[in-house]
Amino acid sequence: MPETFDINLPLELVKKYDRSGPRYTSYPTAPEWSDQYSQDDYIKAITMASKDIKEPLSFYLHIPYCRKRCWFCGCNTMIAKSPSAADEYPARIDKETKMIAQLLGERKNISQFHWGGGTPSYLTDEQTKMAFEIFSKRFSILSDAEISIELDPRVTTKERITLLRSLGFNRLSFGIQDFEIKVQAAIGRNQDEKSAVELYQFCRDEGFSGINYDLIYGLPAQTMESFKRTIEKATVLRPDRVALYSFAFLPNGKAHQKKIDTSLLPSPETKFALFQTARRLFMESGYVQIGMDHFVLPTDELAIAAQNGKLRRNFMGYTVNAARDWVGIGMSSISYINNNFAQNYSSIDSYNTAIDNNRFAVYRGMALSKDDLIRQYVISELMCNFRLDTKTLNDMFDISSQNYFKNEFAQLMPFMEDRLIVHEDGKYAVTSLGKIFVRNIAMTFDAYLKKDKSKLQFSRTI
């Protein structure tokens, strides 16, 4: 039965809970990672992980290049006018992957392989084939593996789609953001809708059954009517999944965002109304909400996983194929190995220097404690599956959660009073209304926010 949706959400709840907070693509969050984490720590983590020979791996490849920087962007990118600028990048990817493969030994299976950026489709056909073969010659990509790539419709040709299909890619993620010309101009993007739609249809003709759309609400020049048109166009095209991201306006950290005309930004109330309306339209069109900001068709494996409480999430997004360990390759990429986070340099020069000197490019990371792992599980369950079964939690970590989280459970009372979460027989469930505020609920269990509230340098939760 389709989930009901209350369009008349009291604005006082929005004002009450709209604050800075993590998106929890990781826990502990990246600001907590230490630059004292060394290459030796990373090598030790990989070596320990190599013992789990039968466990598959997830791989993430970061392609940092873009031909032009969009003003809204929050990704680690670098601008290069010609693909020749990336000529040396595959060689360094090859070297880094070789070092990883040697440490992993007989652990070779890949269940998830994602290319992000930047603009992965920035590479030439030859560079694309070379990058793919770097992995396929050293690892075994499982027959049911999810092999995905992020695409910019402005620089992706039909010939590139055919190549990706021949290599084995089975999921494409289109960076649409908004179909409206005025909004595109306000974010320095200028993307042709007709070409984007034709490319999408060509991908369907080529046999791609897994296509995602990325949309953003809260962009400059967005209005209720214009964003409704974008959502309606998306639902007609029927992508399998839609990520509906909140625009994180952080000009102090992202200097290029200062090009945005702040007078065109929607107010907090309008921004929330944009999300409300989009959520309603997607659900009325038969989509199911998973996580805090994704909508998928009810037959999608993510919808089924969420219904069964099996949904997982990492830096590559929501998934059912995520391995326990994932390896990030390339500039700024993030790995999670043997309960260790490790991130590569975000500067291409620093990354190149490290790899050229036969060293990993890791510059910060963190080895998780038992408390970190317990809280990571709780936050993941809330963010992904909108539930927490304390009996499962107790059995998994050999704790008494009622004692362990005595203060945190008490702090959930205001959320219960506002009908955002319910509790019965040791089971907590986030309500339909509460899904909008799930980041706030998850923050209750973040031990690091309690230690130092000055670190709340995150995007708004609404």
Describe the protein in words.
It is built from 18 helices and 19 strands. By secondary structure, it is α/β, with parallel strands linked by helices. It folds into 2 domains: 8-27 and 369-452, Arc Repressor Mutant, subunit A (Orthogonal Bundle); 28-327, tm_1862 like domain (pyruvate-formate lyase- activating enzyme), CATH 3.80.30. The strands form 5 sheets. A 9-stranded mixed beta sheet has the order 9-10-8-7-6-5-4-1-13, with helices on both faces. Strands 14-15-16 form a 3-stranded antiparallel beta sheet. Strands 17-19-18 form a 3-stranded antiparallel beta sheet. Helix 8 runs parallel beside helix 9. The chain starts with 10 loop residues before the first helix and ends in an 11-residue tail after the last helix. Residues 1-7 have low confidence and may be disordered.
Could you give me the name of the CATH homologous superfamily of the largest domain?
A: tm_1862 like domain
Q: Give the overall shape.
A: globular
**Rg on CA atoms, Å:** 22 Å
CATH C-level category of the largest domain = Alpha Beta
Unreliable runs:
1-7
Based on the coordinates given, report the CATH architecture of the largest domain.
Alpha-Beta Horseshoe
Write the layout of secondary structure elements.
Elements: H1 11-17, H2 39-49, E1 57-63, E2 65-66, E3 78-79, H3 89-104, E4 109-117, H4 125-136, E5 140-151, H5 158-167, E6 171-177, H6 181-186, H7 193-205, E7 211-217, H8 224-237, E8 241-246, H9 268-284, E9 288-290, E10 294-296, H10 301-307, E11 312-314, E12 317-319, E13 325-329, E14 334-337, E15 340-344, H11 348-356, E16 362-367, H12 370-385, E17 387-389, H13 390-397, H14 401-404, H15 406-411, H16 413-417, E18 421-424, E19 427-430, H17 438-443, H18 447-451
Parallel strand pairs: 1-4, 1-13, 2-3, 4-5, 5-6, 6-7, 7-8
Antiparallel strand pairs: 8-10, 9-10, 11-12, 14-15, 15-16, 17-19, 18-19
Helix pairs in contact: 3-4, 8-9
